[in-house]
Design brief:
The protein is an all-alpha fold. The chain has nine helices and no strands. The longest helix is centred in the C-terminal third of the chain and has 28 residues. It starts with a helix and ends with a helix. The relative contact order is 0.11.
Length: 199
């Protein structure tokens, strides 16, 4: 039923998808989604939980034993590969960002938590990079992680808006390079500034 609901929302959007539609698309009665989830909000929360759990399983497989900036690059790749493996799920998640902001505002805390979980994964690897001397020792890993998540989300929004015409796989290495090179350069610049004596 979760898969059927994601497919409908990816095709029609949240507002035009009813619980009865979901029941029929899943091959059950029109009333079963109400019995199981209670409301559309209950169904949407269950769908977000499902998407979150799916990515939480996928990301470690992509990152493996990598640490630091190499792990940051691998995690960006994991987001892209996740979208390519489950395009319906990726579209659903990005529809939820918009609906949480402007439509079903009751979803906002759950979507904020989802973004927080994505950012926490990047923050962990950035802290590893900081501890290994790959980036500046005073780097704000929380803010850097938020910027990376925003970049990835922006590319996915473009992909949704262009109906898949944006080549995610081609953009993946570019995103990885832009994120990690910019962070490393910023760290090197900060270090040089600290080492340069004032006149």
């Amino acid at each position: 039923m979760i898969v059927a609901a994601m497919g409908l929302i990816a095709e029609k959007g949240v507002a035009r998808t009813t619980l009865a539609d979901v029941g029929v698309a899943a091959g059950y009665s029109r009333g079963l989604p109400v019995e199981r989830f209670g409301s559309k909000l209950g169904l949407l929360n269950a769908m977000i939980d499902s998407a979150d759990a799916w990515f939480a399983e996928q990301a470690p497989m992509q990152v493996g034993s990598l640490r630091g900036l190499a792990a940051v690059r691998a995690r960006i790749a994991a987001h892209v590969e996740g979208g390519l493996k489950s395009p319906i799920g990726a579209r659903f998640v990005h529809y939820m960002y918009v609906d949480a902001a402007y439509g079903v505002t009751e979803l906002r805390p759950r979507m904020q938590a989802l973004m927080g979980a994505f950012a926490a994964g990047f923050q962990k690897h950035l802290e590893e990079a900081r501890d290994a001397g790959e980036i500046a020792p005073d780097a704000d890993c929380e803010k850097l992680a938020a910027v990376i998540v925003a970049m990835v989300r922006g590319v996915f929004v473009e992909w949704v808006l262009t109906e898949g015409a944006t080549d995610l796989r081609a953009l993946s290495p570019l995103m990885q390079e832009m994120a990690t090179a910019a962070i490393a350069r910023a760290g090197n610049a900060a270090s040089r500034c600290k080492e340069t004596p004032r006149p």
